């Protein structure tokens, strides 16, 4: 199988969410939150498509039962080697940084320039620069290996505390029937 930025994002939020998504149990299409995110990405910077390139790139598994990587990058600046990501969130999250680092890692594994990343938060009117140094790459590799192991398990990971689940698209799936 291939690990995506979405799965890595979920890994950092909730292992159970990542496992469910990886096993094709999907709820996102019913979520207004996801729709809003797409809408912001499409409407905030309408001139984007002219300036940047959409890239889909992969790293194939090293061994037969290993895990490959797929990155689908919406806004890549090939001249300067900069990955841009737009987030609708009103809060910065480690998972956003990890997502951009994942894109940079996959580009570099393909010998494509990835100097740094920029996360744009239109709601906050802020941007955040993302680097991928040796330490960051080492963390990323550990997360990828751990995520791969969890996804490969037949057992669905445990629930998070309910207080952390309020905005999750799997809320009804996980908590219906619970008190
Ligand atoms: S509802 Fe909670 S436990 Fe279930 S996938 Fe979402 S965050 Fe994880």
UniProtKB/TrEMBL annotation:
Keywords: Antiviral defense, Exonuclease, Hydrolase, Iron, Iron-sulfur, Manganese, Metal-binding, Nuclease. Belongs to the CRISPR-associated exonuclease Cas4 family. The keyword Signal does not apply. It comes from Dyadobacter luteus. Its cofactor is iron-sulfur cluster; Mg(2+); Mn(2+). The keyword Hydrolase applies. It holds the Pfam family Cas_Cas4. InterPro entries: CRISPR-assoc_prot_Cas4, Dna2/Cas4_DUF83, PDDEXK-like_dom_sf. Mg(2+) or Mn(2+) required for ssDNA cleavage activity. CRISPR (clustered regularly interspaced short palindromic repeat) is an adaptive immune system that provides protection against mobile genetic elements (viruses, transposable elements and conjugative plasmids). CRISPR clusters contain sequences complementary to antecedent mobile elements and target invading nucleic acids. CRISPR clusters are transcribed and processed into CRISPR RNA (crRNA). Its EC number is 3.1.12.1. This is CRISPR-associated exonuclease Cas4. Transmembrane segments: none annotated. It comes from the Bacteria. GO terms for molecular function: exonuclease activity; iron-sulfur cluster binding; metal ion binding. Signal peptide: none annotated. PANTHER family: CRISPR-ASSOCIATED EXONUCLEASE CAS4. Coiled coil: none annotated.
